[in-house]
Design a protein that fits this description.
Number of domains of chain A: 1
Strand order of the largest sheet of chain A: 1-2-4-5-6-3
Mean pLDDT of chain A: 95
Low-confidence stretches of chain A: none
Strand content of chain A: 35-45%
CATH topology of chain A: Thiol Ester Dehydrase, Chain A
CATH architecture of chain A: Roll
Helix content of chain A: 10-25%
Radius of gyration of chain A: 14 Å
Structural class of chain A: alpha+beta
CATH superfamily of chain A: Hotdog Thioesterase
Oligomer: homotetramer
Shape of chain A: globular
Chain lengths: 134, 134, 134, 134
């Protein structure tokens, strides 16, 4: 991020500079400082021991969308801490993580991230605290 | 996991049945009900916007090793909730997540997971609550 | 709770059996398995070093209302884990904690608790996992 | 805290300026920027519905000792976020919360707080993130 300036609507460029997101087949559906959206289509690479979406990937989607929501104000952020509750899980279909702004402070921005399936059922509920590094 | 019985020392079989872990290049270094260990060598697929390890992957390592530590008692578990603090980050080298048993209950098992670099410096500190489903 | 059966609408009896809540001047405004409400009027005993409401009390309100919301289904629960984000604080006035049911499971019930001042401004955002012990 | 300067070894003065701690019978056993200690003798005012220590008070002890540990470096802090796991509980005796420094950053200081009974058995495990406001 050092020498690259993000045009805050360019989802393709963001993914291009974020190898982990791209490698894990994440797609950016919406970018805004109040509400962003990231999703995946569940494939083999997403699955855990039980054939469901790996909890690490559910969290990663939430972390990714929280970062996008925070950074959509044009500043630089890192994740400070997060809490995740796992509620139910699926073995195929679409998983959507919505980053909803709770509070944007000078240093700390708090984002709540419901992670849902295609029918809108809650798979996980995440809270992410982002720390502004500029 | 339904029709497959895990021999609790067989790391290769565990990875074979856990596509997300394998796809993200995780290696199981140690399996025990008190202390397990998972690690990655940081490559391009692990990196975020800033060229450091993606927070989602740091959490995923912790979730994975917590699952292995919990399941090493022969029972079946899912992750119930987790909390993660990010402390510092690296752009290359080895990342190790150690699952340390805090308390094994009838239903809930709590595992603390320090995530460190090769020099043992703390990258993240994670607490994972696993729920026994049998 | 052992030999006492709670009539799930009797706020006064609940407080009578819950000395910590009563001692800290908590009042139960609403009891329901989907949405309960607990509040305090900020007095001297509630304040911290800076003359604001002590963070421990803000959490205690959330824990108390989560317990009431969970137990309003007639079952017995203990708190399993919780996460709290502190957002802003006040030195006087009314503080209200609302327990909003996110998911009621067989073992785990998840309750989200916004803690607000009289004007509805968010002071803290809490997630509480309650564990059913029967 | 505005017009009062804390002499970092004066436990009595700290309690005098912290009405919530004093009202809830907390005692400061040890003050240091690496490891502080707060405790209570469990009395009637500390108990919940089941006659055990109220979860809100267990958290409050942890929040209090985290604040003392953070502030023992001479700077001013507020609690940013916290995570608590409840493990077992008691109905009488001494409860001790130890604030152990995990990492002191420029803005964020992370403190881990094991809460134990007299025999050293873990009642709760807490992580507190303090934010430096100067």
């Amino acid at each position: 991020m050092a020498d690259w300036e993000w045009d805050h609507q360019d989802a393709a460029a963001y993914l291009e500079h974020n190898p982990f997101m791209k490698y894990n087949h994440m797609e950016i559906e919406k970018i805004s400082p109040e509400l962003s959206e990231v999703q995946i289509e569940v494939g083999r690479d997403a699955r855990n021991l039980m054939g469901m979406v790996h909890g690490g990937l559910l969290y990663a989607l939430a972390d990714a969308v929280a970062g996008i929501t925070a950074r959509a104000d044009g500043r630089k952020y890192v994740t400070q801490s997060a809490h995740i509750n796992f509620i139910r899980n699926i073995s195929e279909g679409t998983v959507t993580a919505k980053g909803i702004l709770v509070r944007r402070g000078r240093s700390i921005t708090i984002i709540r991230v419901p992670v849902t399936d295609k029918e809108g059922r809650l798979l996980a509920e995440v809270t992410v605290d982002m720390f502004c590094i500029e």
